[in-house]
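Data availability (excerpt). The following record was deposited with the supplementary files.
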Amino acid sequence: MDLEPVIKSVVEHDGLELVDVNLVMESGRRVLRVTIERPDGALDLDTIATESERISRRLDLEDYEPGPYSLEVSSPGLERPLRPDRPQDFTRHVGTRVKVRVAEPGESPETLTGTIAAATERGVTISSESGERTVSYADITRARTIFDWSDAKRESKESREGVSR
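Predicted structure:
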């Protein structure tokens, strides 16, 4: 059974976005990991619990029987994966810092770290201190956003100072 379309229909019906679906073996048991998010980014625990129940119910209705498994539904977190098979992941994050693993044919794999300067249907342009580089989605083996903790600390400090004044 192709799980992604089944789970996607449940998640999108509730106004959420499906980020990823993975069925993995972990410590001798199957774990079905579903990652969801809200378009505005505000995903709370009640929403995650509700989606978990709805996804579980739908899988039962579809007679999904891979044997015993655990369902884990979560948000992508501060550093979320970007899927090269979904260019909209990259388009949505233009201006965001990322780490992208690239393996071009005939070349050694390398990791690019920088900011997404542009994203099209064919590839993404990463801007870094060494300049800009455009890579095809087909050459990306792994990508994720990078949360800048120094910016978060600075914003937190500024907001505390603003409150104490």
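Summary of structural features: The helical segments are 3-13, 45-61, 87-92, 149-164.
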